[in-house]
Fold these 2 entries.
Entry 1:
Amino acid sequence: MDGPTKGLQTITLLSQDARLKGRPKLCSDCGFCDTSMRPLMAQSCVFVENRTAAIEQRVHGRARATADEQLFGVCRQVLAARLREPNPHAQWSGITTRLGALLLERGLADAVITTRAVPGTRFAPQPFLARTPAEVIGSAGNKPCLAPGLSLLDEVRAAGVRKLAVIGVGCQVHALRAAQAELGLDELYVVGIPCSDNVAYPDLQNFLSIVSRSPATVVHFEFMQDFSVHLRHEDGHLEKVNFIDIPMVRLGDVFPSACLACFDYANTLADITFGYMGAPFGWQWVMVRNARGEALLDLVRPLLEFRELLDAGDRRTAVASYLAGLASPRRRPPAPVRKLIAAMMRWRGPKGLEFARSVIEMKMLRNLQYVRSRFGRMEARVVPAHVYAALEPYGPAYAQAFGRALEPRTENQEPTQRPALGAEPR
Ligand SMILES: Cc1cc2nc3c(=O)[nH]c(=O)nc-3n(C[C@H](O)[C@H](O)[C@H](O)COP(=O)(O)OP(=O)(O)OC[C@H]3O[C@@H](n4cnc5c(N)ncnc54)[C@H](O)[C@@H]3O)c2cc1C
Ligand code: SF4
Ligand code: SF4
C-alpha cells in the first residue's frame, strides 16, 4: 500500500484512480492510512470490518432500539433547527462550523479538524487543523468530494493538541472512533455530517458539466428534498434539475466502490449529526446521539431557532418499486414522462423524516446489492447487522426480485463463510 505520501495541497485534485492506487479495493481515502496510525488500519477501517454495533455500545451506551434508529442511528433527540443569523457561505445555516468555532472560543477544544477549499477552487476539499474560530467559520460550505481529513492526526499529535474536535463524514468517524483510545487525547468532540455517493474532484467537475448549463459559475449545490438538484450560480440565480433527468449513463462509474459499500449515511458514530435531508426545506436536521452531543447542542442552542419536524407520506411503495428496478433496470422514460413523474414525486412523495427514511433505505438496498454482486465474500464484514433489520419490511419483495433471501446466508452456507481477517482479497 502507498503512503503516507500524498501532500494535502494536491491530493484532492487527483482522479479517483490516482488517489486510490495501491490502496485496498474498498477505500474512501479517509486519511487514516496517511498517518503513523496506519498499522491500526485493520482494526479501524470500516471497509475491513464494520464495527458500528460495538462502537455504538461504547460511545452511545446502547444499541439501536427502534425502527427509525435502524436507519438514523442511536438518537436521544431529533430536531429541526437553524442559526438565527445564518452564515451566507455555509452549506445550510452554518450550525456545524459555528459549533466548531464555539468549542475554540470557550477553550473546550484546542483545535478543530475541518475542511476548506483548495486555493483557487470552490469545491476541492483541503482538510486542515483550525486553531481559531475565524478559521473554522472560514471552512463553511461543502466541498463534496473525498477528503482525507484523518491525515491530520499526526499533526494533531505533533502540535500537542489534547482537546480535539473533528468535523467529518461517516467513514472518517468510524476509523477515528475505532482508534480513539490510541489517540492520547483528553477530550474528543465528534461533529458529524451525513454523506453518501461521494466522488473524486475531477468526477465532481464532470458531474457539474453534465447537469448544469453553466458549470463554472456554480457556487453552491445540493440534492434537495423536492427530488431535484438545486445549483446556485455566482449571479444568484437558481438552476433546478430533477433527479430523474440526471443522465446517470453519461456519468459512468463515478462513485468509488467504497461509497457504494458504505452504510452510514447518517454518520451514526458522531456525538451529534447536522444534516438537512430529514428537515423541512431551509432547516437543518439535528440528531443528538449521546450526553456529549447534548452538551454540544446546549453550547450552540442560544444561537438557534427550532421548529417541528415534518413527517408525511408513505415511502414503502416507492422504495419497493426502486427495489424492483434494481433487480431489473428499466429504460429511462422520455422527457415528458420524466417531467410528469417528477411532478408526481413532488406532489405525492414522502416528506420530511419519511423522505429521509426512503433515501436511506434506497441507499442501503443499492449498496447491499453492490456488495453482494462485486464483493460478495466481504458481506459479513462490511454490511452491519442493522442494515438487515432496517430492510426487513422489504424481505418478501427482495426475495421475489433477486431470488435470494435478504438476510445473509448462515455461517455454514456457501458463499458467505466468514473469512479470517486478512484472508479476503481486497
Ligand atoms: C459529500 C457530502 C455529502 C453530503 N450528503 C448529505 C446528504 O445526503 N444528506 C444530508 O442530510 N446531508 C448531507 N451532507 C451534509 C450537508 O450537506 C451539510 O454539510 C451539513 O448539513 C452541515 O451544514 P452546515 O450549514 O451546518 O455546515 P457548514 O457550517 O457550512 O460546515 C460544513 C462543514 O462540512 C465540512 N466539509 C465540507 N466538505 C467536506 C468533505 N468533503 N468531507 C468532510 N467534511 C467536509 C467542512 O469542514 C465544514 O466543517 C453532505 C455533506 C458532504 C460533504
Ligand atoms: S478508508 Fe481510510 S482506513 Fe480504510 S484503507 Fe482507506 S485510508 Fe485506510
Ligand atoms: S459515502 Fe460513505 S465512504 Fe463515501 S465518503 Fe461518504 S461516508 Fe465515506
Entry 2:
Amino acid sequence: MSDFKKNLLIGDVQTFSIVDFPSHIAAVAFLQGCPWRCPFCYNKGLQSLEQVPDPQWTFEKFFKFIERRKGFLDAVVFSGGEPLVQDGLFDAIQKVKELGYIIGLHTGGYRPDALKKVLPLLDWIGLDIKGPKKKYKILTGGFDAYGNVQKSLQILVDCGTKFECRTTCDPRTLNIEDLFEIGHFLKQMNVKEYYLQKYRPVEGDTITTDSACEELISDDRLLSFLSQSFEKFDIRR
Ligand code: SF4
C-alpha cells in the first residue's frame, strides 16, 4: 500500500454520487494533475501535477473509506484532473477492484497507451470530446492533443467496454457548426452514446450569459441530427 501513497495523488473525493457512473452509486476520486488548460475547466485546483500541501485525502484513506462503504456504494470512479497522467493508476484500480467494486474512468483521452493499460480493469468510461479537430489546440490551452484523443476514441470503439462521449458546450469557444462537426465525426467513428453538457460560467467568466449557454444546446436541427445519429443522446443541464 505504501507505493500507492507515493504514486497516486488524490486532489479531492466525492463520497456519494449518482451522476458520475450511469445507473450506479459511486464514490469518485478526483486525481491530482492535468497537463491541459481548458478555458472552461471547473477543476483548476486539480491542474497542478504537484501534491497540494497537507492533502485531505491519500489513497490509503480513500481505500479505507470505500472498504467501509461496500454494500452501500457499488462503483468507484477515477476522475480528475486527468487520471491517466498518474502512473500509479493501474495498481490503484486493481486494488479497488479486488474489493468487488465496478470501476469507471473519466478522461480526456490524453494518453492512449495508459488508457490501453487500464482498460481491462474498467467497466465504463466517460470520454470528453472538447471540440472539433480545428479547435482542439485552443480548447486544451495550446496542446496538440487531437491525435491522442482520436487514438483513445478508436481504442474505446474497438474494445467492447461501455463508454460515452460528451462535450461541454461553452459558447465562448464552440458554436452550433462545431457541434455538428463533432456529431458527424463521432457518428462516423461508430460511437453509440453522446451527451451535450451545458456550460456553467466558471470563475472569472463574467461575460457569458445563461441564455447564450442555453441557446447553444437548443438548436432544433442540431438536436434532431444528434438524436438520429446515436443510440443514446441527451442534454445534461
Ligand atoms: S482536461 Fe479537465 S481537468 Fe484538465 S484542464 Fe481540461 S477541464 Fe480541466
